[in-house]
Amino acid sequence: MNEYYKNLLPLIHTGFKNSIVQYTKIPSFSTETAFSCQAVNNQKIIIANTLTNSFWYTDDKKNVQLISNSKIIDDELFELIKSLFNIVSSQIRPPEKQVFGTDGETFYFEIFSKDGKSNTGKIWSPDKNSAMKKLTNISDDLYLLGAGANINSYIIKNKIKTLIIELKKISRTLPQLKKMTVLTENQVTELCIFIENQIEKNGCDHSLKNTFEWAERNEINKADLIDVLECNGGFCDCEVIMNLPENCSLEIESGNNEPDYKNPFKTPLNFQQTEHKVYTKALFSSSEYNNNNSYTKNGELLIPAPFGFKPKKRVRKSVHFFNGTESELPSEIGIVKEIIPTNGKEFAKKIRDFKLESLSKFSERDAEYYLSRIEKIEIGKPMGTYFMEITGIGGTKIDLKIHKVIFR
Ligand SMILES: [Zn+2]
Question: Out of the domains of life, which is the source (predicted)?
Fold first, then answer.
């Protein structure tokens, strides 16, 4: 976890314990907030925490103080909150370990089950009218209720009931995730013993060298192994020993990544094209970001890969990627650069003329969406791409996003 979160979370989660849900909101330009819904000595309460200043924008973090309030809530509201987040929990995917900020708001929730296990989800600036937007609205209301605002809990209860019904409908239409066991419980133990013996002799060189040696001997698929290790914080041999959960098998979920023939890039269906619009910027690879899973040559023009496209080199499963227009290799990050002014039609043709399989269906509409996302971002800024589906709530819709990346 990076510095910002490592310092922020313990502060803004002060007093949170035995929670059924914890919710943290990181707005773009204002102060961070969080709430916990918890039961203490048979009393059900919402604790609402915020800070005297934005933790992100304040240089001297020691001057940032906690403001904490709490409010007792009735059993009905408590049970409704519990039901709501139980459904949310069943619909969210494993969290991404590396956190990118975006130019929008970020919401995190951590939902706890009876056995104390937690499930974490993240939402980026959700679309208007989406179930995710409703979830963040309700969460904002719950925060305000806890903070002592004059909010009618009857109205919140009705909003929750409505959203529960909507989420239940959505969950019936969500693609079923197939779970695949990468390592059995015994294999996890064997792997850890193997690494321990090796490290005792030679120490950890902060690679997965020993892990891979063991995997090869045991014929474990390396790409799947890396995914499951990354999801559990195992980025090098010593972290594998320290961070892998004991007494359980390690699984990855494989989503429904069938290519979409009608809309291969998943350009949002509600995107409105602007006629005759001229654009002046596009994304290019930069050697400055080569450590962020970028395999492209320096200066290649980058276009998001179509949905379901298998990258030609390994990238993290949790993020989407751009393809280089020369190498067709993946890059997670692109830099905004000026181009000769162009329109969607011209630009799309130029991309198709590269004659790469992955970009052969890049349409005028796809080009306009891509160019319009980049046009308002300053030259030199890094951008990333992802599919809305990654957050998992909000239905069957999968939308391409191209967004500014802030390294926190
Ligand atoms: Zn290490």
Answer: Bacteria
